[in-house]
Task: inverse folding
């Protein structure tokens, strides 16, 4: 029996063919992994299934009957719920109100808030967050908001759940809870289509896979019978021989960033580091350990309570609490936020505007932006980072997540930053785009830039970094050459193991 069957699905946006004859099927109680590069058509297909878009051609059967949802509400009423990659929560409402939005329990025509909080707490308890039902979403960190988004779908009693990069902002313990919840859904007969760029996760949760490339399904089968190399080759259309760029040992350049005794209560208790020209220094640690707060304080976005920071080759130490984003920019620092949608981009502006935003002087004369020069400079970065966009004047919101991330990185390149503070630079980015971003980061280090790379993905840190430090419970370990670390010792340090254990 097949729960969902798609045949010959097509969708175009102007001259862009997003889907070109895609066919796939999902059985009851099955987890199907849908993989592919950003822009391959995955999100377009999910938006059609969830009623957000109408296909140009093709046939959809759901529960054996023709399926043509008129709206997302119609799709939910039919039993299909969609968790988008970019969060779509109402920050001014409580967690419970977000989870049950549109399906609020009522009594005698009045909202039954007690019943709503109970139902939300039941769903949240699967992730160990049952006590947060009455909190405002605006008060929650990014990882906790991701859990609210997932919980909203699980509360809908759906028969088909569409998960688009659901673990992109979750710490490992919550990933494990999410997978346990997905397995419970699967075992109860609910079907799941799971989109992820992390093949380790795909193998952990799914039985079959389908690969989209340029709007076409190019491969499918059982995950047990396919190697990672085969899947990646299908995704990018070529063999991937070297995922991380080979880099010579960096010359010991002059220090461009010096940090001493940084404190950002309550997250960062003590952080001391030195970042030199031409090197990539990795910062590992579990989510909530204080990594993001540390990087934000180095750019003046978080209020430090103590410590000194020196930016630039001849930068004098200043009190960390007095550092502002303007001062950090003027001293050669550039910051890439982990929250692409909320902070990383101005979604109402074009690709060119976003790329040039932090250095408009480079394309201006007498205080006026010269549009032709701005577009020329933006196109150079678009070509360099291989950004897939209809044009430099296209709205940045129309791009896929991976290409939006490349635009955010392009802004730092156009800014001419000497010190790059990168917080999760490849979160939610497909395999092919990751390789391109890694190449760009390696080129920047080779050209003499200093790169601070914060990541939750240990293979990324071990593949890219010259030295590594680990943040654990608000304290940053001394940085050591990457050869002196192993993934096991880094994880031991991250979860609070003693220094002797970590070096064992």
Result:
């Amino acid at each position: 029996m097949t729960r969902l069957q798609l045949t010959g699905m097509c969708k175009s946006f102007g001259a862009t063919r997003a889907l070109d004859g895609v066919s796939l099927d999902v059985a009851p109680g099955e987890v199907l992994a849908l993989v592919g590069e950003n822009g391959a058509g995955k999100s377009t297909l999910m938006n059609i299934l969830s009623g957000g878009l109408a296909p140009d051609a093709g046939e959809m059967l759901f529960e054996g009957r023709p399926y043509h949802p008129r709206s997302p509400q119609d799709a939910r009423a039919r039993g299909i719920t969609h968790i988008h990659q970019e969060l779509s929560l109402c920050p001014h409402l409580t967690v419970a109100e977000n989870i049950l939005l549109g399906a609020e329990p009522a009594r005698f025509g009045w909202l039954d808030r007690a019943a709503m909080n109970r139902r939300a707490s039941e769903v949240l308890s699967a992730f160990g967050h049952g006590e947060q039902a009455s909190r405002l979403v605006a008060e929650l960190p990014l990882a906790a908001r991701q859990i609210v988004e997932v919980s909203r779908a699980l509360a809908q009693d759906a028969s088909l759940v569409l998960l688009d990069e659901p673990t992109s902002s979750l710490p490992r313990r919550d990933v494990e809870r999410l997978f346990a919840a997905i397995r419970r859904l699967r075992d109860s007969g609910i079907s799941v289509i799971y989109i992820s760029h992390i093949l380790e996760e795909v193998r952990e949760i799914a039985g079959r896979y389908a690969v989209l490339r340029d709007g076409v399904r190019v491969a499918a089968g059982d995950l047990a019978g396919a190697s990672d190399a085969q899947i990646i080759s299908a995704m990018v259309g070529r063999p991937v021989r070297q995922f991380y760029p080979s880099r010579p040992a960096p010359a010991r350049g002059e220090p461009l960033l010096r940090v001493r005794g940084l404190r950002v209560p309550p997250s960062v208790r003590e952080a001391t580091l030195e970042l030199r020209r031409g090197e990539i220094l990795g910062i590992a640690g579990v989510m909530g350990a204080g990594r993001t707060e540390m990087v934000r304080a180095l750019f003046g976005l978080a209020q430090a309570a103590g410590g000194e920071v020196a930016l630039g080759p001849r930068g004098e130490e200043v009190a960390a609490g007095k550092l502002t984003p303007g001062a950090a920019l003027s001293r050669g620092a550039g910051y890439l936020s982990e929250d692409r949608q909320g902070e990383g981009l101005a979604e109402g502006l074009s690709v060119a505007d976003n790329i040039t935003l932090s250095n408009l002087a480079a394309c201006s004369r007498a205080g006026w932006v010269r549009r032709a020069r701005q577009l020329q400079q933006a196109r150079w970065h678009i070509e360099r980072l291989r950004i897939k966009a209809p044009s430099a004047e296209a709205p940045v919101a129309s791009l896929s997540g991976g290409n939006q991330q490349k635009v955010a990185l392009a802004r730092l390149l156009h800014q001419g930053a000497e010190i790059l503070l990168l917080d999760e630079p490849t979160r939610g980015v497909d395999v092919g785009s990751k390789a391109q971003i890694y190449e760009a980061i390696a080129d920047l280090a080779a050209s003499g830039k200093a790169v601070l790379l914060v990541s939750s993905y240990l293979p990324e840190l071990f593949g890219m970094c010259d030295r590594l430090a680990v943040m654990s419970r608000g304290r940053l370990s001394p940085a050591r050459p990457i050869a002196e670390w192993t993934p096991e010792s880094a994880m031991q340090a991250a979860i609070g193991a003693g220094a002797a254990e970590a070096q064992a």
Summary: The radius of gyration is 23 Å. Residues 344-405 form one domain. The CA atoms of residues 385 and 436 lie 7 Å apart. Residues 172-187 form the longest helix (16 residues).
